[in-house]
Amino acid sequence: MKWLDIAEVARRTGLPPSTLRFYEAKGLITSVGRHGLRRMFGPDVLERLALVTLGRSAGFALDDLAGLFKSGGKPRIDREQLAAKADELDRTIRRLAAVREGLRHASTCPAPSHLECPRFQRLLRVATANQVRHPTKASPRRKTPPRQ
Amino acid sequence: MKWLDIAEVARRTGLPPSTLRFYEAKGLITSVGRHGLRRMFGPDVLERLALVTLGRSAGFALDDLAGLFKSGGKPRIDREQLAAKADELDRTIRRLAAVREGLRHASTCPAPSHLECPRFQRLLRVATANQVRHPTKASPRRKTPPRQ
DNA sequence: GCTTGACCTCAAGTGGACTTGAATTCGTAG
DNA sequence: CTACGAATTCAAGTCCACTTGAGGTCAAGC
């Protein structure tokens, strides 16, 4: 049998079943049918979920992604949109790299206050410029975390 | 007069006044006093806000930051914690860089489906590994954005 | 001295992304 | 054939980071 049940998909992707059901309701994935009540997924759902994960890390909202998938079979994902997203991501990366350097420096800098350190000053300026909202914090993934 | 009123701070940081009041309530910033009802901020609040912005982009939650500031004057921000954060950020950056390459490639790739392209396949694998939760989407900053 | 408009407070609302819980239905092992 | 555990639905709840709105205050300009 090449069908995967929800637990199997959860196991292979690390996403909790609740999330998979949620994604299905949002139109991000589809099940091929049911075995009794139970959803059965085709193996391609794994690829699709990887794509969702990818899109999310690139900053797409779930609704954006659902849109891309719905229209995306034929009308092709807008190349300009992709390029724009890549550029935006590039700016984000540069900023994060600066932040990373600042953190590393701060973790070893002997200055009494980071605020007095010229390196840190520069970091602050970089971090403040073209900020991107990177909402909440990273959280424990895998197996139904207690909260959030 | 070296005091800044909330509008001035808002102007200089790009953060809406509501956010500044919110941050004050959270203990992320403090006003030096009032002029009548109005908060007056010292110029150092700008630096502090830059630090908050920085922390947020590094993935700290507001509460974490408030914690750092509270205890942070003396006990020194934990160096190990900073280093760990830097490492985490580094992984995030690598992943994002891979995603960026994938997006760029996808925006020019003539393949009928990105999924058939080996480059894209690789990207999917990279993006799927060590995922970090990067919640909602980037949003327009500056001057009281309509939503979110 | 009165108006005006920026600022104030406090409670409630919003949006995104999920999670949780109660009540129910099955497939399968014994 | 029955009991059990895993899946199901659907509504409601949670978290975070803010925003909005109603109702009130006050400093400054005319």
UniProtKB/TrEMBL annotation, chains A, B:
UniProt KW DNA-binding keyword: yes
Highest taxon in the source lineage: Bacteria
Keyword line: DNA-binding
Keyword DNA-binding: yes
Any Pfam family hit: MerR_1
Residue ranges of domain HTH merR-type in the record: 1-71
Gene3D superfamilies cross-referenced by the UniProt entry: 1.10.1660.10
Coiled-coil stretches: none
Family matches, as SMART domains: HTH_MERR
Protein name per the record: Helix-turn-helix domain-containing protein
Organism: Frateuria flava
Organism classification: Bacteria, Pseudomonadati, Pseudomonadota, Gammaproteobacteria, Lysobacterales
